[in-house]
Each structure stands twice: as structure tokens, then as C-alpha cells.
């Protein structure tokens, strides 16, 4: 398999020549995953192609307002045939999920488009660019390179992808092209104010209950430089949490002026602990710390899975993280 940066124009040629296409992204999809999948899917459908949008865990409730998300398929998948499969925003092939990986394998040709630097390039074509702030930005560039339709619905999805993965254009990965794309969408008539309100100013009461619990229970250590929270199954059951409810909560921990890194530990149904880590100091590479526990991702945003119980996993991870934080001047 080639791990080269396949030009987007060549990927566009392959998609143009295919008729039946499956598009997928990682489990527990966020705004970039869902937005990229649906942005590409809706553009290809506008060209008359048969497109299957696959997400192992379905559409998170906080993004259910986006257009045509009801067309997203979840396991068990029907026995459809496909010419080309596309994996978006997924650092390893396995991260699409067991059933989705099997469905993508029906295609003789796989395209891997991503911005996680750890992605090994598992497709026959790979466009993995760790400098891109969001896969939604890559997909937008792909659509332009191919001259594919960019409808209002496509823009809603890709703006969501770009906005959420750049922290609403705040993260250091945001570049001039990011703002240029937003300007092009505004010029084309996209109502970005409405999207921003739905994304950032419209939450169920459950989320506020989670925020209250996090603020009450957060742990601050390393002279205020590390903030963390242990999100237990007991609290999930009490609040009746839904997928998407926790999106962005970690950014509140990171807001503390002395904090350079924030971590949330989440108890999973299988007993594993999901670790989400963020850095706001370029010198602190949280992907390296997550890598010590079999995880990875971006320098400033990364994750891992650890064995429980949650208190032990948290202490183990925070000890390793504190070691790195104390190396900073």
C-alpha cells in the first residue's frame, strides 16, 4: 500500500469514474467525521452517484440538525455492492469499526483521506496531511479540485467539520486557507450564524448537568498546570447521557489560565477507560504521552484506551503527563 500524498485531482478522477461509493469515518464520530462524510456524500449524490454513508455509531444527537443525516447507515449493513470505498478522518483502518471495515472491504479500491500524522496510509490511494486543521477542509479542496457540486447542504456539513475541529477557528492549526474557505461559503450564501448558534449555543439540559459535575469534581495538579476529570458510568446513567453531549467539555477545563493540558477519563461499557487529552502549549506533545498507552493523534489533541478501574488509569496517565509538564520551563 502506498503512503504517498496522492494529489486530490487524482482522487477526484477515481470518484468521478465510480458509480457506487461507500464513505465512512471513525467510531464515536465528531463534527469533522460526520461533516466530512456527509459533505462528500451529498456532493457525489448531486452528481447522480449511488453513495452509502456509513458510521458504526450513527449520528451524535448534537449534530442531528444537519441536512440529510437520516441517510447515514449503521450496522447491520445491507448486502450492497460498491466500486470504491473512502475512509475519512480515521487514523487506522480498524477505527472505522468492525462492521464498517467489513463493509468497506467489499470494494476493490480504498481511498484514505486524513489529517492524523500517525496514519500509516492504509488505502490504495492516501491523502494524509497532518498540517490540515480538519478533514472537512481537505474534502472541500477535493470537491473544488474535481469541480464537484458544492451545494448549501454540502457547505453546512463541511463548515461544521471545519468549525468544530478548529475550535471555531481558534486552534493553532487554523490557517489562512481555513478562513478563505469560510469566506467562500459566506459569499455563496451559507448562514454561518445559524450554524454557529446550533453548534455552540444550543444544548440539552443534560450537558449542563455534566458541566456542573465536571466543575465540582475536576482535579487540578502540577501547580495548576494539569486539569482533569473522571467521567463515570454512574454519572452517565444518572444524566442519561447521549452521544455528543460531552463534545467540547474538555475545552472548559483548558480555559483555566494556569492550565497547559486538560484530560478527561471516561468509563466505557466494556470497562476500558477512554482518555482524551488536550494541550495548549506547543512544547507539550500529548500524542507522545498517549502513545505510551497505545494511543495517539495530534500533538495538541490526542487520545488513548486504558485498562480500568478509572481511578488507577487516571493516576497512571496523570503521572506520565506530569513528568512531561515538569520538563517545561
From TrEMBL:
GO MF, any single term: nucleic acid binding
Domain DHHA1 intervals: 240-324
One of the Pfam families matching this protein, by short name: DHHA1
Location of the DDH domain: 20-160
InterPro entries to which the protein is assigned, alphabetical: DDH_dom (IPR001667), DHH_sf (IPR038763), DHHA1_dom (IPR003156), Oligoribo/pAp-PDE_c-di-AMP_PDE (IPR051319)
Database matches in SUPFAM superfamilies: DHH phosphoesterases
Gene3D superfamilies, alphabetized: 3.10.310.30, inorganic pyrophosphatase (n-terminal core)
PANTHER family assigned: BIFUNCTIONAL OLIGORIBONUCLEASE AND PAP PHOSPHATASE NRNA
Protein name: Phosphoesterase RecJ-like protein
Source organism (scientific name): Prosthecobacter fusiformis
